[in-house]
Amino acid sequence: MTSTLVGGGSRPRALPAQVIAILGAELPSLAEEIVEEIRRSVPEYARREGRSERAAYRITVEQTMAAFLDQFTGGGESYARRDELCRELGRSEAYQGRTLDALQAAYRVGVQVAWRRVASVARERRLPAEVMTRLAEALFAYIDELASLSVEGYLEVRSSADELPGDRRRLLRMVLGPGAATGALTEAAEAAGWDVPATVTMVAMPAGARCLREAMDGDVLVNLADAEPHLLIPGPYSPERAAMLNRALPERRSAVGLTVPLAQAADSLRWARRALALVESGCLEDAGPTLCERHLLELWLLSDGPLLDQLARRELAALAGMPRTRRMRMTETLVAWLDAQGNAVEAANRLRLHPQTVRYRMRQISVAFDRQLADPAARFVLDAVLRAHRLRERRPSLK
Fold first, then answer.
1. Least buried of 13, 28, 163, 215, by fewest C-beta within 10 Å?
2. Of the residues 283, 301, 319, the one at which a domain ends
3. Contacts for 58-61: CB closer than 8 Å, 24+ residues apart
4. Rg of the chain's alpha carbons, rounded to an integer?
5. pTM value?
6. Where is the PucR C-terminal helix-turn-helix domain (predicted)?
7. Phi, psi (rounded to 5 degrees) for 133
8. Nearest to residue 257, comparing CAs of 211, 206, 200, 217?
9. Does the residue 170 lie in any domain?
């Protein structure tokens, strides 16, 4: 007894029903292997999904492969469901922020794993070469078709992301532009169904960050198409908003600006982007999300690198001619002494040295920094320069 495969307008191709039964028994474990190999081989799928997401991938793979075998038995009634399943997979990947390249790479990995399994089973069961040829042609053509359907769903979401939320993206651009609190903004907000808040909190994200749009609160304005993706949270960054952000940004890579009046939204975003840049350069720890309100001093001290360089050259000129080891020792001692407000014992505890050692070093330092240490205003500048210097020492490339 034989059955036929109908696909892509080609003539029916006979295939033994026994082969279909053999392959059908492989589907559950094959689906699991495909999902595992995609996670291993495609970086954007390498993170650990939740149990429900992983199960959804496995079910999708198993059902689409079952539909492949159904083609041999004339089970065409499942095509509509299969097509929608593939389109929905593409939509889901777009919503989750994965790239189209990653989606297509996943399909390539999937067909490689599937064919490897088919070939292995064929060797074990000693299937004829003619059957293997037909299976190969059918499988690769079938996966191409599935990939096209998923790409269709993916582009559908990306297209709607450009069109449907366009009013809100334009609204976000208006908020960040000059003269945010205007009648035009109010009209645009009404047209977009958005209540204009008194205060906002901006969030900066790295390029390519994964964002689950469905996890966002309805009043959050999002622009993922920008080279520097960002979003606007109406009002303060409350615990509820923090929980939302954690759900929407699974990779936790973001920086949260200060809560400011609506007209100052651009400042909040600028600070958030600066904090994100400092995280990426290593000056700030990446505990994600990074809150600007916890790093105000660092943001201020490192706000203008070239100006800081000029200031450091002036304030630390006395150290310029010293050997590197001595310069580092003197700087370390001076920082500890300033932190201890001139208390040699406390400074010694910070440095794990004897107080007499600190006093000896400070006598040498006082000769070079006599004016700065005697004048409160000059001492403040010196302290600020040294603090910034310590922050930038974490990443020498920032100097």
1. 163
2. 301
3. 58/31, 58/32, 59/31, 60/85, 60/86, 60/89, 61/30, 61/31, 61/34, 61/35, 61/110
4. 31
5. 0.51
6. 331-388
7. -60, -45
8. 200
9. no
